[in-house]
Amino acid sequence: MTEDIEQYPDRVADMYKDKTIFITGGTGFMGKVLVEKLLRTCSDLKKIIILVRNKKGKYPMERIREILAGPLYDKVKKLKGAEIINKVDAVEGDVMLPNLGISEKDRIMLANEVQLILHCAATIRFDETLKKAVLLNARGTKFMLELAKECKQLQCFVHVSTAYCHLSERILYERPYAPPADPHKVIQTAEWLSDDVMETITPKILQDIPNTYAFTKALGEALVVEQHGKLPVMILRPSVVIPIWKEPIPGWTDNINGPTGLLIGAGKGVLRTMYCKQDAYADYMPVDIVVNATLASVWFYIYDERKKWIFNLTSSALYKITMEEIINIGRKVINTKIPLNGVAWYPGGSMKRSKIVHYICFFLFHIIPAVLVDALLLVIGYKPVLCRVQNRIWKGFEVFEYYANNQWDFDNQESLSLRDALLNPRERENYKCDGDGIDYFEYFSTCVHAARLYILKETDDTLPAARRHMFVMWIVDKVCKGLFLFAVMYYLYQKVLSPLLAAI
């Protein structure tokens, strides 16, 4: 913006001033961006405390220091000084454990100091075992609410749910919904039964819900709803959270979930077919917009005297992009602008409306090439890889197809009122909650570029070689298609046309 926005007040940042914020899931994708945004925009806060478990022999503060040393935090350290990261602290614990695995000393400290709790921790794996998903997504939320009851200065408990946790509702409104089962009984069942027994009864418990993620997130949300009126609780329902749109690093992500995985798979030439309605659309939200909306909604909840407490952080009511448009844009980006290194074949393929046609194409263009390449790798002394990759793709299809071939819409009037409450240019700029001005080609270009750098570790100096390789693959693709067409025509000539001509 050309206008000097610093002349305007920032009521959101003022609300966070001198606050101690306790965050779960702070080492995850959204959590990392949330911490960065708090440090950069609400830097007068007192402290951010992140619940972190020991992992691979690394203590919590070791893990936090490694994360804060990453490129995502370069901008805030440049703007606010390197010492800004000293406001981030860690408490050892694990949402999977009874009472969160927090020591009595740390629990007393949290109870005395924390004003805001942002509960973002969850397993987002759709194929997670039911027992683990229940213990993390449902029981973990229950334990977090119990901790919240002990916090003497608590002003807001934020539960990050998902817009896709009530799948029987084709239009999701910003209100509570009945859970698919009693969360307390399901938690008790998960605690009592062994993993094997729990796996055996999972289909009966889930019934028509397609995965453990949606089921357990709905249970967790129900536990928060129970505390409404007793605790200052809020529920946020983001849709599919995708890489950063604007700041601090356009396109940044730390995983290959969602469209990023599709772009990489298609860009590497290993994804050739999908069973999907071309005109179907999903609901996507860049993670920086979700984080902006999260910070602003906490302010709005307190500012508006806790009247509005459920927000659908969704986009499709205003911005729709179809699966076909995403694939076409991604193909154009990878083929003409930012190719990936070492593509197995020239990117191509298509979406299929027929599941049978999709299965045939998967066998022809996924399984057969994978078997042939892996056999060749074995012969020359290397480990086979492509069959394992195709197995993962097939499992991914099982999840993807359900969501890609069903349609949900989301009412987000409360979220729109939140945008309207940001009155001046500074607040609207700092906590941008809309998609106004997005250019999908440029956005997906930054996503592919960031995926090259931060996921695939393919530096920019490899781009010229990648473009040359892509051109070679284009020639190989055209030659092979030409030879295949020639073979088909020759076969038809020999077996059909030639006998007919001889008979005449």
Task: Describe the structure concisely.
By secondary structure, the protein is α/β, with parallel strands linked by helices. The chain has helices spanning 11-16, 29-41, 60-68, 74-80, 104-113, 130-150, 183-192, 195-206, 212-226, 259-267, 287-303, 323-336, 355-379, 386-404, 413-421, 425-430, 440-455, 463-503, and strands spanning 20-24, 47-52, 88-92, 116-119, 156-160, 171-172, 233-238, 240-242, 273-275, 284-286, 310-313, 350-352, 409-410.
Commentary on this structure:
- The chain is of the alpha/beta class and 504 residues long.
- The chain is 51% helix and 10% strand.
- The chain contains 18 helices and 13 strands.
- The protein has helices at residues 11-16, 29-41, 60-68, 74-80, 104-113, 130-150, 183-192, 195-206, 212-226, 259-267, 287-303, 323-336, 355-379, 386-404, 413-421, 425-430, 440-455, 463-503; strands at 20-24, 47-52, 88-92, 116-119, 156-160, 171-172, 233-238, 240-242, 273-275, 284-286, 310-313, 350-352, 409-410.
- Strand 4 (116-119), helix 6 (130-150) and strand 5 (156-160) form a beta-alpha-beta unit.
- The longest helix is centred in the C-terminal third of the chain and has 41 residues, at 463-503.
- The model has no long low-confidence stretch (mean pLDDT 90).
